[in-house]
Amino acid sequence: MKTALVCGGGGFIGGHLINRLKKEGYFVRGVDLKENEYGNDKADEFVIGDLRDSHIAEEVVKGMNEVYQLAADMGGAGYIFTGDHDAAVMHNSALCNLNVLDAAEKAGVQKIFYSSSACMYPEYNQLDPDNPKCSEDSAYPAAPDSEYGWEKLFSERLYFAYQRNTKIKVKVARFHNIFGPQGTWTGGKEKAPAALCRKVAESDNGSFIEVWGDGKQTRSFLFIDECVEAVRRLMDSDFSGPVNIGSEEMISINDFAKMVIDISGKNISIKNIPGPTGVRGRNSDNKLIREKLGWEPSLPLRKGMEITFKWINQQVQQKVSII
């Protein structure tokens, strides 16, 4: 039986990835600081442990054929772009990567996947909201707009250095705004899709929701099922990456908010307010994933948002009924 470790298995993407690996017949071990808050993992074993501790990393990689390293200190714009958490973000995530990669290599793990981020792309290529440049070869000269992005870029180089100098095979993907049900939707670390769904779900007809910035900033968003599919295809391929895992369906944040409102069926307006927004434009460039994997995401954004809003709306209503 193939064995896999999912680091960050208590998180949104990690939980969905565990379920996918189980369906494929893997023996799966998860590790995180906490279990998945929505019970969204079916791991054979789940270890509550801190990967900043090298001894924990050494223990959890034992007996694993593959490692999926998704553990990181991260969150939405309200967490990443204020600057208030920069030291923790860099320290915590770098330590996780250093410990897990070193332990995996020493334990004879065959392959390790690392989840990087589109946040590592240069800010100077993302100033025009209508024409951002995020092809994989545009990463240098490096100039991410956040310390989160700088740490991701450092860790990419760390993984490829290990591949050059040791026998371990690495796979690196740059995630572009992954969303879907059974993920963080409140508390300050939620990302734009979940935050907008929550705001709309909590609002009454005739009211308004607040959107940070002028709303003209653009992004693309990828549904969780397609993210997991891409990760598995990359892991089973001969390509190491880095490669974008994202959608090319770019949308302004105001139009995105209008989509959520329309899905809800409510009569709600938008109020743009000052707030952290990140770069002006970002969109996945999928030329390389089409070339190397013969595949690309295809689910329309609205379809994924309909599923996501339904789930978050249920969470909001359950919370209200408890109160």
List keywords for this structure.
alpha/beta; seven-stranded parallel sheet; UDP-galactose 4-epimerase, domain 1; two-stranded parallel sheet; 323 residues; Rossmann fold
Describe this structure in words.
Helix 6 crosses helix 8. Strand 1, helix 1 and strand 2 form a beta-alpha-beta unit. By secondary structure, the chain is of the alpha/beta class. The model has no long low-confidence stretch (mean pLDDT 94). The termini are far apart. It is 39% helix and 17% strand. It folds into two domains: 200 residues, Rossmann fold, CATH 3.40.50; 95 residues, UDP-galactose 4-epimerase, domain 1 (Alpha-Beta Complex). The protein is built from ten helices and 13 strands. A seven-stranded parallel sheet has the order 3-2-1-4-5-6-11, with helices on both faces.
